[in-house]
DNA sequence: TTCATAGTTCGATGCTAACCGAAGCATTTC
DNA sequence: GAAATGCTTCGGTTAGCATCGAACTATGAA
């Protein structure tokens, strides 16, 4: 009967709303303290403490004590990937979100999806790279030699990225757009570069990525969509 | 707070042991009746009925009435992929399975992972294709032109596969081997061909794939590992 | 019609776990 | 030292839900 690993155990861990909120909050890639997570989940410290203990014991979180603070983060990229996959299924099949607030609009525009850029801006980046022949999409994205030049020119150290265990390019299905965007270590590096250039900054209390007016223009120039390239843009 | 889709809702659906067992049973890709699933989960029909209703309502299952039977299947490949991802996380981080029985040994050797071949045989197939230059692994598998010839020779209609929406090649992390094997429509087609050739058959009540003695030999000949290729095999 | 099988609905029961108040540690600051 | 802050443990309450027996509907067979 029970063929394979015990998926119910860890699904149940994610299945509680308070814990799910904590996990989603950690998808930004930042480590948060227990108190911050308690606030994020809308429960008291005591309750949060037990939840966090269970999540850690269950292998979903990693914790690091620092003074009297306890910082928590997702245990691995696998966990982040699992949460993204869950979001995809939850958004696709199943109830649509009940209400679309202004918060959601910003979230759809640009957000962090476990350290890389997602939302409309994320898919635009992906499409732009593909349309200009920098990214070759077969059964999974791959950087062309022209693309390698482009990335270096944009200030990304590809050799350093290749050191890591994580794949350079990976695509990730967007729950809001239902289209692909770029994940993997390159995806992360691109977001980091965009931040470093001052084009955008991470809103501290959520996963929303806020582009400045100039930043958005610079972004559109660097990563034009197929249409803008063809027509000369506005 | 609640950024994005409601992942807790569907995680909670998977989080119940009875429901999880049902879902895992459906990972074979076959559609099963309500009674079969009740037996699989070890609960009575009444209990199973409510579970199945919830899973369907939650968008995880698809049902088709046929006479007085009700056949249930996973709603989409996405759901299958989600379950497999869950298995990966559950097997990796977290408790190891309590006991490894003979059932598990067979399961580790060769099993169905949502319609494609997984386990030792699955990773062997993957490694073999890669070692012989049929599969190019960059950031995701891709069939080389030599590989295309090989597949046609093996009796696989690539053009037909390309018609579908699903990607041709995709890699899938194996929970038992912690290594990759081949998913995607090509992965499915390969399993189908292996079955059609009589090399193996699906054990009706589980996800185990049973190779015959001759079938295993033929498989090893067609998909030799790097070592066997180099040394001339046994 | 009568019987059998597949599946659903209802009501009652019992267990699990989420939750918070209060008290208890540990670490930092004054 | 004492006070403050971050986090944990304990105990008791409450709510949700998985479970099954029993009764009910629907399809198919004799």
UniProtKB/TrEMBL annotation, chains A, B:
The biological processes this protein is annotated with in GO are:
response to cadmium ion; response to lead ion
Q: Which Pfam families match?
A: HTH_20
Q: Where is the HTH arsR-type domain?
A: 1-94
**Protein origin, superkingdom:** Bacteria
Q: Source organism lineage?
A: Bacteria, Pseudomonadati, Pseudomonadota, Alphaproteobacteria, Rhodobacterales
What is the protein name given in its UniProt record?
A: ArsR family transcriptional regulator
Indicate the secretion signal residues: none
Q: Which GO terms describe its molecular function?
A: cadmium ion sensor activity; DNA binding; DNA-binding transcription factor activity; lead ion binding
């Amino acid at each position: 009967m029970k063929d394979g690993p015990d998926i119910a155990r860890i699904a149940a861990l994610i299945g509680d709303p308070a814990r799910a909120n904590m996990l989603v909050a950690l998808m930004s890639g930042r480590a948060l303290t227990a108190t911050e997570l308690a606030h994020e989940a809308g429960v008291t410290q005591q309750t949060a403490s037990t939840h966090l203990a269970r999540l850690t014991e269950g292998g979903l979180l990693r914790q690091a004590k620092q003074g009297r603070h306890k910082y928590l983060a997702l245990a691995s990229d696998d966990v982040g990937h699992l949460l993204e996959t869950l979001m995809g299924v939850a958004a696709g099949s199943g109830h649509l979100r009940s209400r679309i607030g202004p918060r959601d609009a910003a979230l759809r525009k640009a957000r962090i999806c476990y350290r890389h850029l997602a939302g409309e801006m994320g898919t635009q980046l992906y499409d732009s790279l593909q349309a200009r022949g920098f990214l070759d999409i077969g059964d999974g994205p791959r950087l062309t030699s022209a693309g390698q030049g482009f990335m270096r020119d944009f200030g990304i150290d590809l050799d350093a990225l290749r050191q890591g265990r994580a794949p350079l390019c990976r695509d990730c299905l967007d729950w809001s757009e239902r289209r692909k965007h770029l994940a993997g270590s390159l995806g992360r590096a691109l977001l980091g570069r965009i931040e470093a250039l001052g084009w955008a900054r991470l809103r501290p209390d959520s996963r929303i990525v806020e582009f400045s007016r100039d930043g958005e223009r610079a972004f559109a120039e660097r990563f034009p969509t197929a249409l803008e390239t063809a027509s000369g843009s506005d």
